[in-house]
């Protein structure tokens, strides 16, 4: 007996792992504070622009949370996948955007002269998680298409 693959469960798990890795990336960046060192990096952002940057980062963290919730609602809808098909398509492209935005961040972490290996490794993990989300998102979207 074969059971259908629960892509929505896979996606929720991957997004949660991705969010935890993002939080750990930030946490690792602050670790020098706990050892009497400064975590400060040279900023190229004008202080007046910081609220906009902080708002953008807030959105960057909140949108995957929203995606997890919408995936859960789509997966548990008794009316089936048909009415959630647009969300599945949007989710796939949304996941592509997140993967694309992590690649330049990974490259930046590699080329920064004083980059830390732990941060680079974590960014590699984030990119790999993003690629897994892309693959499962594609499969989830395609699963909803009429045969």
Q: SSE string, helix = H, strand = E?
A: HHHH
Distance between the termini: 21 Å
Approximately what portion of the residues adopt beta-strand conformation? under 5%
Number of strands: 0
Radius of gyration: 18 Å
Report the principal-axis shape: elongated
| Helix-strand category | mainly alpha
Please, how many helices?
4
Name the helicity range.
over 70%
In short:
By secondary structure, the chain is mostly helical.
Describe the structure.
It is a single chain. The chain is mainly α and 147 residues long. Helix content is 71%, strand content 0%. It contains 4 helices and no strands. Helix 1 (7-30) packs antiparallel against helix 2, helix 1 (7-30) runs antiparallel to helix 4 and helix 3 packs antiparallel against helix 4. The relative contact order is 0.17.
List the helices and strands and how they pair.
Blueprint: H1 7-30, H2 50-76, H3 85-111, H4 117-143
Helix pairs in contact: 1-2, 1-4, 3-4
């Amino acid at each position: 007996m074969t059971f259908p693959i629960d892509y929505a469960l896979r996606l929720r798990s991957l997004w949660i792992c991705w969010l935890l890795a993002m939080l750990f990336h930030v946490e690792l960046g602050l670790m020098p504070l706990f050892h009497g060192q400064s975590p400060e990096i040279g900023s190229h952002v004008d202080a007046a622009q910081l609220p906009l940057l902080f708002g953008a980062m807030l959105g960057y963290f909140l949108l995957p949370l929203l995606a997890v919730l919408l995936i859960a609602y789509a997966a548990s809808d008794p009316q089936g996948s048909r009415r959630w098909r647009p969300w599945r398509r949007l989710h796939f492209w949304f996941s592509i955007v997140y993967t694309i935005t992590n690649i330049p961040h990974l490259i930046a972490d590699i080329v920064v002269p004083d980059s830390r290996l732990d941060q680079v490794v974590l960014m590699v993990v984030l990119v790999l998680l993003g690629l897994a989300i892309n693959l499962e998102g594609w499969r989830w979207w395609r699963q909803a298409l009429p045969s």
